[in-house]
Write a structure and sequence with these properties.
This protein is α+β, with helices and mostly antiparallel strands and about 350 residues long. The protein is about 25% helix and about 30% strand. The chain folds into two domains: about 1-40 and about 115-195 and about 300-355, FAD/NAD(P)-binding domain (3-Layer(bba) Sandwich); about 45-110 and about 195-295, Polyamine Oxidase, Chain A, domain 2 (Alpha-Beta Complex).
């Protein structure tokens, strides 16, 4: 199948660029290796519940995120969660006002509802991993895919006039590793991007547990924990306490090759129990996930990374800056603008207008 533009990755950067280009009239397809959209704005289903596995909340920071939050609030996709911050300091949990005031918003149906909103009306091929990109004699890119999970009837190859790679930089390096015409400097710039990993534990407890007076606690960098959140406080229908624990980068690095992630998850719960609530070490249910590319530690200094190849090719993502979600949105827009300038040069609507039309 042939398209105007193929976007690899259905995270926030990929969905933002795809939505703006599709509304401008381009024939766009998004290729996603998982079964859902959103990338690290992820929600995991566990027995009788759903918990946020990646992004914890959204704040009105930057230029684009407040615009998106305004629309998401209007559509009742997100609501206010908290406007206070609790942090662990030595032996105390301190409540501090957010300065400047920055309310934190969550999606009651799970943070992946944000990805679902941004992906409305989008052609997305799920459970397909991009493995190879090659230029063709007819001035198109040929993209080879592999099946990640059964149940999808999407093709395993496609051609496109332009490609946007909206994945973590190391995954982009893998996809483009043998692609002809790509300058060595471009590969070096991609390879230079570095990440901090994170291990996330989702823990469910009996309904008779006494809940704390906080919904989340941030930890200093010298502990094994990064953050502990009462995820069930986000859900109006929650019947039992559910906590989500994010590890520090150093803890996650020490478990990058650990086969038994449950053991690492229990270590995190033991730490949380020693700091916060003793019963956190005794969950009824535990699920653990490893994010190899959780937070960019060494980013690319521009909004996206474009090549000087004869065929349009741009890489983008939250690694093109330091503001995570805001960076992903901005990077996706920059990629769309560059691709459009190399194709038909259509009129691109303002992103607020694009989002309001979804």
């Amino acid at each position: 199948m042939t398209f105007d533009i193929a976007v690899i990755g259905a995270g926030l950067a990929g969905l933002t660029s795809a939505a703006q280009l599709q509304q401008a009239g381009y024939d766009v397809v998004v290729v996603e290796k998982s079964r859902g959209v959103g990338g690290r704005v992820a929600t995991r289903r566990i027995p009788g519940y759903r918990a946020d596995l990646g992004a914890r909340y959204l704040e009105e920071t930057g230029r684009l995120l407040p615009l998106l939050l305004e629309i998401l609030r209007d559509r009742q996709v997100v609501r206010l969660w908290t406007d206070t911050r609790h942090r662990w300091d030595s032996e105390l949990i301190l409540e501090t006002p957010l300065e400047p005031p920055s309310p934190r918003y969550i999606a009651p149906d799970g943070m992946n509802a944000i990805g679902k909103f941004l992906g409305r009306g989008m052609r997305v091929w799920f459970s397909r991993r991009a493995v190879r990109l090659a230029p063709q004699a007819d001035d198109t890119w040929h993209l080879s895919l592999e099946t990640v999970a059964e149940g999808s009837n999407a093709a395993i190859e496609l051609t496109a006039k332009a490609v946007i790679v909206a994945t973590p930089a190391p995954q982009a390096v893998e996809i483009l590793g043998n692609t002809a015409q790509i300058p060595e400097e471009f590969r070096q710039n991609l390879t230079a991007v570095e990440y901090d990993p994170c291990i996330t534990a989702i823990a469910k407890y009996p309904s008779d547990r006494q809940l704390p007076d906080w919904v989340s606690v941030d930890f200093p960098p010298d502990t094994d924990l990064l953050w502990v959140g009462l995820d069930s406080s986000k859900r109006p229908d929650a019947q039992q306490p559910v906590f989500v624990v994010h590890s520090s980068a150093d803890f996650a690095r020490s478990h990058l090759d650990t086969a038994n992630l449950e053991s690492a998850g229990r270590q995190l719960l033991d730490r949380a129990a020693s700091y916060l609530l003793p019963w956190l070490s005794e969950p009824k249910f535990l699920q653990v996930h490893r994010w190899r590319y959780a937070f960019t530690s060494k980013s690319w200094y521009r909004d996206c990374l474009a090549t000087a190849t004869p065929l349009p090719l741009v890489c983008c993502g939250d690694w093109c800056g330091t503001q995570q979600i805001e960076t992903a949105l901005r990077s996706g827009l920059a990629a769309a603008s560059i691709i459009n300038s190399q194709l038909q040069q259509e009129v691109l609507n303002p992103i607020r207008q694009v989002w309001r039309s979804l």
